[in-house]
Amino acid sequence: MVKRFCSFSGIEYDSNLLNILQIVRSSFQKKGYFVFEMPFADDEIGALCYRGDGLGYVVVNTSLPKVNVNFAIAHEIYHVFFGESEFVSKVEFADDHYYEHEEEYAANLFAGMLLMPEVSFRRMYLKFKEESHGDEINTIIQLMSYYQVPYMAVLIRCLELELITGNVIPEQLFGLERDQIRQKLADLWLDESIMDASHRDDYSHMEDIVEGFGEKYIEDGYINERTLKKVLRNMRELYTKIKGE
Fold this sequence. Notes:
By secondary structure, the chain is an alpha+beta fold. It has helices at 2-9, 20-30, 66-82, 102-115, 118-131, 136-147, 151-160, 178-187, 203-219, 225-243, and strands spanning 33-38, 45-51, 56-61, 87-90.
């Protein structure tokens, strides 16, 4: 599936994706999905993926840290290209839920493989582990910074590829809080801003697009002005609810 997506998107398989949203936007459009970013009041949701009778929509939650947003986008690629139903997708990994839903697990596995290609990941793991003098946490933090993905996603990728092995995985690998991760990034002279939310908001642009199409449809006699005003009003009300205002 990763190979099929890369072929469809015109990118080299096993290459590192430096800007996942820029890569997938045109690919989503070819599949009939429009992608836009918006801050949600609910910071448990990474992205929404919905397909109506016409266009589909992927709405990315920019209230989350950049690393989580990147993973959420890659997660939604699976649902758009290979999924069988609509989802509200959670971006955070949790040990007790990771294997709970088969399609969600598949989407997370796909996202990890896409964002952290095996050949590159193995090479960078060995490099960062040597630089970290065998410290697994610092190695994971460096990989997290390099691939711009959540700490837990890196840890799970290490386990999937059996780079971290043993009958008992040290508990401290699973116990890092967000503040501790940020401090580790600072201690290693890495970019702490990957833990920040961008709060980018594409709503006004979306409204301009809808209004532009609406005015054209009024001219062509498909709808009347009252219908367009109602659509715009409903959009604003939904936008306000999503933002929690």
